[in-house]
Amino acid sequence: MPTPTTAEAIRNRAPLVPGDVVILYDRQRRRYRVTLREGSSFSTHLGGIPHSQLIGRTEGFTVFTSKNHPLVVIRPTFREAVLELPRQSQVIYPKDLGTILMRLDLYPGAHVAETGLGSGAASAAILRAIGNEGSLVTYEIREHTLQGAQANIAALAPDATNHRIVVADAY
Question: What domains are there in the chain, each with its CATH number?
Fold first, then answer.
């Protein structure tokens, strides 16, 4: 059986694997973002948890730290992932992304031109809205932002093959 893509794994609630990002919630609703790695562990004032207790399980469970504190384990939502993206430019928050998508009246199959790549959050939101049937062309003049933004887009819209970045002035 072929290995599922990241997007398929998230949709199908596939077991957690090394490299997956999870959010651990404690009783006080504090959030801890963790990238799972073989042989690693997560530590906080509430105690520690080896990643091996998370890897291979399906999200939505509770795990107990070494100090017997419960933490709920889930994958981050698109909104949570956007808020935590590494940024090199102005932030576009999820509530603004929603407004942008609605104002643009985006739908599966739409063809979109975008100016400015920024963190890639808007591009990822657009790609999710237009689906694989649509296309997105992004114009960006700052080459130094490309690598970080492309990594963010790959994490947020991993199956998007319909995005082309043009390093040029959109004018």
Answer: 6-74 (3.10.330.20), 78-167 (3.40.50.150)
DSSP letter for each residue of 120-167: SHHHHHHHHHHTTTSEEEEEES-GGGHHHHHHHHHHHSTT---EEEEE
What are 149's two structure tokens?
Answer: 């933004």
Of the candidates 100, 84, 91, the residue with the CA atom closest to the CA atom of residue 155? 84
Give the integer Cα–Cα distance in Å for 108 and 129: 6
Q: What is the pLDDT along the chain (171 residues), one digit of tens a residue?
A: 444 555 555 555 789 999 999 999 999 999 999 999 999 999 999 999 999 999 999 999 999 999 999 999 999 988 888 877 766 777 788 889 999 999 999 999 999 999 999 889 999 999 999 999 999 999 999 998 899 899 999 989 988 899 999 999 988
First to last CA, the chain: 47
What is d(CA 26, CA 115) in angstroms, rounded to the nearest whole number? 40
Choose among 49, 7, 17, 15: nearest CA to 32: 49
pTM to 2 decimal places: 0.68
